[in-house]
Amino acid sequence: MTALASFNVRSSKQSEWIDISSEVHKAVAESGVKEGIAVVFVPHTTASVTVNENADPDVPGDLRLALDLISPDRGEFRHGEGNSAAHVKTSLISPSLTLIVAGGKLLLGTWQGILFTEHDGPRTRKVHVRTMGE
Length: 134
Fold this sequence. Notes:
Layout: E1 2-10, E2 16-19, H1 21-31, E3 35-41, E4 47-53, H2 58-70, H3 84-93, E5 96-102, E6 105-106, E7 112-118, E8 124-133
Antiparallel strand pairs: 1-8, 2-7, 3-5, 3-8, 4-7, 5-6
């Protein structure tokens, strides 16, 4: 059994981390898959998804700070749109996740959530969730 669900995420800042856990949980529940996997995919080159703590609002801010230190905007970048740092951050984090579905639910830890990471906003982005299994 497979199912595909899609939803939009709207960022309001250039760099923003948005908890999309509830939307992904809903897509998995509606898929009918009880045992399998869910792939979360962002079809954009300057946005990504990751799993990390969603209980403390300081964690995404700390992660954003660390990424800005790793990939700051640099005058030496040659990409004409001026958003090379955003492309680097997307490559470091990844535009996709593979998650385990067990008992019809995502198998995540107590403090884990699914975070959409915007690196070149504000924008409206698409997120796809492909659920596969039995």
